[in-house]
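User: Predict the complex with flavin-adenine dinucleotide.
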Amino acid sequence: MATRRSGIVVIGAGQAALTLAETLRRGGETRPITLIGTEVHPPYQRPPLSKAYLSGGMPRDRLWLKPPEWYAEHEIDLVLGVEVTAIDRRRSQVVLSDGGVRAYGQLVLATGSRPRPLPAAAGGDLAGVHVIRGIDDIDRLAAQLASARAVLLIGGGYIGLEAAAVARGLGKSVTLVEAAPRILARVACDRTAAMVRDLHLSHGVDLREGLGVARLVPGADGAAAGARLADGTEVAADLVIVGIGGIANDALARSAGLRCGDGSGGVCVDAFCRTEDPDILAAGDVALFDIDGSGSMRLESVQNACDQARAAAATLLGREEAYAPVPWFWSDQYDMKLQIAGLNRGADRTLLRPGRRPGTGSVWYFRASRFVAVDALSDPRAYMAGKRWLEERVSPRLDQLADPAVDLKEVASDPVDVPA
Ligand code: FAD
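Assistant: Here is the predicted structure with flavin-adenine dinucleotide placed in the model:
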């Protein structure tokens, strides 16, 4: 059994890892802290990758979460370009791709997630097929995007839709194909999807919903030159971007015998970010946890990576603070800012509240008459009101909320005292 005096080793050097290290040092942690990351880049923010960084509107040095000198100043050992290949729980050490090992007193899995690949059988391994996850992905993609004329997006989730908006902004012809009956099927209701659909149609995106890709078609040079769709039609493209969801990087945990989830995976943790091994915690995209009493889930968001890492740090500092957040998320597409607060799963009713300008507004989700989430489309007042109600554990009065003549500040709310 490792002693409390041994160091803390974090696998991954992304948003969750950085927040964890920072919170530990702020909390007075004096033990050695090591972050080990596969990527050669220091911890950076991913959201701009499918937005301003992809469009060329943000320089690379604005992606870094901390200046280079911060790590030495805070005695954080940053080991980059090295993969952890195994966790040896018996010896309390991790095995590295460079042949080394690192002993740990406590270990944190902050390995994030990766894009679900388009199978090779469907042409996913052709040249000219891109995913959006890391800086290197974007640098490769942006170079080809500059000269591309027609872009095919596979997947109508946030990343695909954001990339479509960037590509249209660069003047490319854009087709977006979504196999599910509609875009945003996994994350938003049909009212929100309808507003986002209208936005993309108004910007000239050729949006095809309920239509999967049968396979990508190679051109004379062997690179992807388009796709044959499920209905037999073909779409020509000189660049393909695949955004069909994420999978947790939980292979290390699985091999080490830790309990993990099915589907898109994830390492099972309790409200204090502990796995079943008392010396191993997990936080961020990779963690699978029960947030609202309705079953385990993973959240892929900056809010989750940061807040869960803070909860994990509290556990390591010996001050247990259960992770019970009001989740929030955002997406930028064209000049529309979508802001989401709460979790809409299990919602049985939605309400659309039009905004002050066309194309703006908010969609409110209720479960058993209880307010659980809001999607605000270029409507920051709705987002702020909804987030506040969720934090205060109250539900706005439906009749007042439904009436656009009633100002949000005037909408009354009732306490919610039943568990979600
Ligand atoms: P990551 O930041 O992915 O860090 C994990 C790191 O661990 C990676 O660098 C990985 O290489 C490394 N790693 C994995 N396995 C190993 C190993 N065995 N050994 C060593 N290192 C390993 N969220 C929002 O809230 N709003 C947004 O608008 C938004 N936009 C996004 C746009 C894009 C393009 C992407 C990709 C994500 C976006 N997100 C957004 C999600 C958000 O960025 C992630 O949820 C967040 O980065 C997760 O942090 P993390 O630390 O869990 O994982």
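The mean pLDDT is 95.
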